[in-house]
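Methods, example record. To illustrate the input and output format used throughout this study, we show the complete record for Sodium:solute symporter family. The sequence lines were provided to the predictor; the line carrying structure tokens was produced by it.
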Amino acid sequence: MTNGVGVAVNGGWQNQKFQFDIVDYAVFGAMLLLSALTGLYYGCRSRYCKTGEAPTLREYLTGSGNMKPFPVAMSLVASYISGVTILGTPAEIYNFGTQYWLIVVAIWISGIVVAIVYVPVFCKLQVNSSYEYLELRFNRYVRTLASVLFVLDEIMFLPILIYVPSLAFNQVTGIDIHLIGTIVCVVCIFYTVLGGLKAVVWTDTWQIIVMFLSVVVVVALGTSSLGGAAYVWERSSSRILISNFNPSPYERHTVFGVIIGGFIYWTSFNAVNQTMVQRYLSLPTENQAKMSVAIFTVGVSVFVSVCCFTGLIIYATYFDCDPLTAGRIRANDQLLPLFVMETVGHLRGVPGLFIAGVFGAALSSLSVILNSTSMVIYFIYFV
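The corresponding predicted structure is encoded as:
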């Protein structure tokens, strides 16, 4: 069992000084409660406050095509920024340096290409899913194959989305991973099923605010505790790598690999993935869809950059005593929770805000996947 941070206990850590207290639990619980209430509100609003009838399929799955660019853009950001991103990116920078930070360049190039090439096509066709294009271009068998592959891919990704933040929660509270994972999944399914796309988008909107606030607070306090950004940069000089032009495919990160590979990945995800296309089509005009892509590109770039800088802060803190080597943590994904509890664990509510941000990221990605896969499955078997 684990509780707090400090010395290894059964492969985790324990600290008698800093522990997850009632304020932290309240902050985390408030995040789950607000998520559930958002779904309840939009579920009741669509059924009883307008016509007294159940919402149409179009309203449930695409918000009737009348959503606003900013909340949709925030939902796009939230759907990409998962708990894996928040916990994994700092660990990546901590262990292998800042070469990965060039992914921001790939994100910008991808955003431009998606807005100019792909968004106009889907907005003009007004298909229900991105895979309907394959039926129009080829045949129904190709569409079905692509749809099934998408569903399988998302289903296999779901356990990772929940496991990583559940592991972080376990490390600071001692609560069983499976218990907290089940609770979070139930809450997410509740508001996603009840409220449809509108609940997903608006929940994602305030969840991304919680996510960004949690990371920024940790970065600001962590930087301050070390004496400022200049000191962090100086202490982490051995991890600042941005010009590795080695063409070898065996290199972990190079300029070519990060920018070219990142562009291919981001374009495939942003351009044709159903989780993204569904939100593009929830907007009334092509220009608004392009605007949402622009806001999304800026938002993701900023968030990823903050996560990368967090990795430098962690390295500056533990540069002379690696927690993993010392046996204080079991995996690199536990670096950030350890840092949070040791650096700002004495500030009541801050650890709770951080965990709320990590789970907010998981919830936003999970809800989008549930909503999108249900739409794809529906149009495979019932249309």
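Annotations derived from this record:
Residues 318 and 357 are 23 Å apart (CA to CA).
Confidence is low (pLDDT under 50) at residues 1-17.
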